[in-house]
Design brief:
single chain, alpha+beta, 10-stranded antiparallel β-sheet, two-stranded antiparallel sheet, 26% strand
């Protein structure tokens, strides 16, 4: 595993000054020092120092940009973040256009990964969220295909697909969070009836662990467990990469 991929999908406006202020201050006040970022920037490379004493400067950069700034930790456990603000909703017409992702080194361990996940859930009020390993995310959502153009010619296209929340949910992973909207879609009682190692109430939603530890289960067995959960909650509710077709091959 290269990293945990911790992600939430939301309609909360993460570009607002109010969100930026509470999010950054609570990150330092509520999470342990091992999860504190020490760099920030408006884009790559992420090189500006971030310490408790200059949080106001980072908050102003975020609110001026009206978009989540990049955060980074350069000491173990290393991580980097990215986010999008839901002010884009009018452009892309997605129900939950805001998203926040943290790529966290696996040496952090499951406990810290879950702690950070709960923090994101509590602050972003997501419709859906998940923790997967990098390889699992790529296996389920990364595609390559050849795009042909009307005037002739073609090009190789690489992209991630099926990550949006709407007609379907992205999938089931090691840790999966169903917010109120997702629970309304698939049924709260169905989630509560799952035979999984843990079901935890967070905010108005539910987080499930498909298996005990992300790092110690064989990928084949993990996918079998996840597929069984998808079957229990309804296959039609989840993205299926095997049924995805490139835009020019409907």
């Amino acid at each position: 595993m290269k990293s945990y991929v911790i992600e939430v999908k939301t309609a909360v406006d993460m570009g607002s000054e109010q969100f930026a202020t509470s999010f950054l201050h609570d990150w330092f006040n509520q999470l342990p020092p091992r999860l504190h970022p020490n760099r920030y920037d408006k884009g790559e490379p992420v090189r500006k120092s971030l310490q408790p004493e200059n949080l106001e400067t980072a908050t102003k950069a975020w609110s001026d940009l009206k978009f989540p700034i990049l955060l980074k930790r350069t000491t173990k456990p290393r991580f980097q973040t990215s986010g999008s603000a839901s002010s884009k909703k009018g452009i892309n017409n997605r129900l939950f256009p805001g998203e926040y992702t943290v790529w966290l080194d696996t040496n952090a361990g499951d406990e810290l990964a879950l702690l950070l996940f709960r923090f994101l859930i509590n602050h972003c009020n997501p419709a859906f969220g998940a923790i997967a390993c990098y390889e699992d995310k790529r296996n389920k959502h990364f595609v390559t295909y050849r795009e042909t153009y009307p005037g002739g010619g073609s090009a190789q296209v690489e992209q991630y697909v099926g990550l949006g929340v709407g007609e379907t949910l992205p999938g089931i992973y090691w840790a999966t969070y169903f917010g109120p909207w997702a629970l309304g879609k698939i049924g709260r009682e169905k989630v509560l009836g799952l035979k999984v190692p843990n079901i935890e109430s967070i905010g108005d939603g539910l987080m499930i662990l498909a298996y005990d530890e992300l790092s110690e289960i064989d990928p084949v067995k993990a996918h079998a467990v996840e597929d069984q959960i998808v079957q229990s909650l309804g296959k039609a509710n989840f993205f299926d990469k095997s049924k995805w077709r490139p835009p020019n091959k409907k």
